[in-house]
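Rotation project, supervised by the postdoc (A.L.). Task for the rotation student: set up a whole-complex structure prediction and record inputs and outputs verbatim in this book. Inputs entered:
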Amino acid sequence: MQISFTLNGRPTTVDAEPATLVAELLRERLNLTGTHIGCDTSQCGACVVHLNGLPVKSCTLLAPALDGATLLTIEGLQGVPGSNQMHPMQEAFREHHGLQCGFCTPGMLMTAVALATEKPDLTEADVRHGLEGNICRCTGYQNIVVSVMAGAVAMNAAKGE
Amino acid sequence: MGNVIGIGASPKRKEDQRFLTGRGNYVSDIKRPGMTAGVFVRSPHGHAMLRGVDKSAALASPGVIAVLTGEDAAADKLGSLPCGWGISDAKGVPMKEPPFPMLAQGKVRFVGDMVAFVIAETPAQASAAAELLTVDYEVLPSVVGVLEAVRPGAPQLFDDVPNNICCDWELGDKAAVETAFRKAAHVAKLSLVNNRLIGNPMEPRAAIAEYEPGTDRFTLWTTSQFPHVVRLLMGALVLNIPQHKLRVVAPDVGGGFGVKQFHYGEEAVITWAAKRVMRPIKWVASRSEGYVSDRHGRDHVTEAELALDETGKFLAFRVNTLANMGGYLSTFGPNIPTNLYGPLLGGVYTTPAIYCNVKVVFTNTVPVDAYRGAGRPEATFVLERIVDVAAAEMGIDRVEIRRRNMIPKEAYPYQTPVLVQYDSGDPMGCLDGALVAADVKNFGIRKAESARRGKFRGLGYSTYVEACGLAPSRFAGRLGARGGLYESATVRVHPTGQVTVMIGTHNHGQGHETTFAQIVSEKLGVAFDNVDIVFGDTDRVQFGMGTYGSRSLVVGGAALSKATDKVVAKGKKIAAHLLEAAEVDIQFEAGKFSVAGTDRAKTFEEIAGAAYVPHDYPLEVLEPGLEEQAYYDPVNFTYPGGCHIAEVEVDPETGTVTLVNYTAVDDVGTVINPMIVEGQLHGGIVQGVGQALYENAVYDEGSGQLLSGSLMDYCMPRADHMPMMKIATHSTLCTHTPMGVKGCGEVGTIGSPAAIINAVVDALSHLGVTHVDMPATPNRIWRLLQNASLPVAAE
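Outputs recorded:
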């Protein structure tokens, strides 16, 4: 079936089997391999993308759900749309060593941006609770939590400018 | 151009740009022209005779290209998966080493054992065809626990391995230990289980293989921590492919923790199959498939006894362990519960006599091998638990009993009774630092506050040491290693002065691209931005043993340091010629070659240029070029260690244990990049927290089914399980590595489980609880409390 949606700011139309998972569609058909698949039970969160501005696990979403929707993946996350500038949350992860092997990182970033957008004055407890659906095996989460809090502050500052 | 950024600085990581923007290059991201999809058919039974495989329906399924089984592998005369270590018993009798066929032949020995490989045009077609394969199994009873496996009448995995015992291994002076026990004023005893773990790197294993008939070359992309070792073992011992016709690439790898440091059957099958079907093939494991095929870790049952004199001094330590090997010997398998376990039983103490017996046992479970820490967390757990048991029984404070037995700083180098000689350390300094950092003196106030809320608060210590930097080759050879464990690095200086390093270690999260660039920047005086680190490709890197056992900086970094020294030595020769001075008069400092006592000098860039464009150059005595290679073999292990203090709160209503404070003061030697070291400690500690509180791989005894077979059944630590940890270093320098480094990848995982369980036991000690097995889940604690004397209210 034909599915038309906005992908990282660009109108996109694909022809896909209705049973195709969004994570699969992104990785195999659209060559956007930044969205990762780390499990088969929707536990790990490596595949989180934004559907109409909200974080979703793309491994449990079927492609037809994209029709008419707006999708943002890690490849489209930017400081200023259309620029090569990193998003403040990406900068914060780099600054505070919020990543090691990088595999969970795209999903972590997409969840983190959503958390900070939803609640600008995030507490440590909010961040830890908000990351329940994203597993990292490398960092012990400490620097991810620090990064998300710093990224949220930077996002607020950028909004104020 | 940027600046020199050297040892001790924390520049932001070079690798982060690609990972933060979704531009990493993991195996599953790679596509090859004409690529097909492969799916493994795995045994659903723990133990069964394999009577036959009927391929016909699968072969007729749409899109199917081939179906391969163990019979096909046997017809092609493929080898068995090799074990890299050969251990022996006390009489020198070698371990039993049954063949490990890459696809099962005649029998399957664990749920997940590979039976067939189905190749089709798409993953969906391959999966559909795999469902149509008819496998004729004659199911046998399974045995999954070590105690059950050695009992008379237990199911036998191999005809020629009586009682399922692979090796009855021992270490230490048994007679001296017995004598000491006879003189003891007190003997503390402890029975414990070290729970079975699944490593769970976030990237599942994957591989792509391709054969080019025009050049007769194979390429394997694989999620490996040691691509050169895969090339050597697979090419030379399994598939009989000459090394120059086989390229192994391990690109970005999403975490390893040991799980990816073995040569897996999947790698051999897919490489062999690529030539048979003359098409590239890709296989990506699902998480559930990883649970029944990634090598597991730990899984010990242990009886320990500590003999003490009347003052609490340790006289002797005796440990008897049954260690689970699973269904076959994996690459490092038998080395882990023996050589990486027994020699660590001395810990940071002066115990004069130690004896350790380990029975290495086959069971119908996934093969067990190294998982972060590998043997050393098990040793630390036994020792640090029994020290607490002895302290409680003798009425001695837990910190005091440790102090009475600790090796003083001035006693290093210290020879233990179990082979290893510690070169440097200061366990008392780490302990003192941790006591302050953890605010132990006010623990009573916090405990009382918890009690007012109806919670039991406990404090636990772990003062530990580990051996890492694998490994001094001669020493390892005496222990049974079938190859040396050195490392190599090439420093290629380009004509314009930038540097590319080719190194045999593998970066899969540890930040090598940054740390190693700092070493080069410091040693050669070149800008940090002008150094790139290349790894993970046998066509680009000379050779290497890869990354495991906290060896990359200790062994690889030393090779790199040595190679930079060679570059400087060659640069001095070139400078002497250009500056018309004697070589001995040339000094190299801060990126400049100068003639001592003069202002005549050449920059590093000028020397690099002259090396490659040698129009004015004594070619008869000096070769052009500025590229040096070095191999480094350590003379000893390194011995990082430290003190970890955990503080927990137990809710008696639910049995839930909450980790409320965690403090670690570790001695990792010289710190190259403090930010990265701290990150390694965070991650290591939380993997230890996982073992202590959450993670457990559980098998059903009769059927051999893995009951914890997905992320929904196997509990991984989440962000809200952790408090903010306090991390500090208290370093003494390693005396035998070039930069004084000791390694930091595993310390967190080794030190932490004992600290946490000691804290849980402390919290419950007023109820008569003396030991809690891992993981200390709410269920386990709640049951303990139901059986305890007074679970009603906190004191």
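Student's summary: The longest helix of chain B spans residues 552-578.
Supervisor addendum: DSSP finds 20 helices and 30 strands in chain B.
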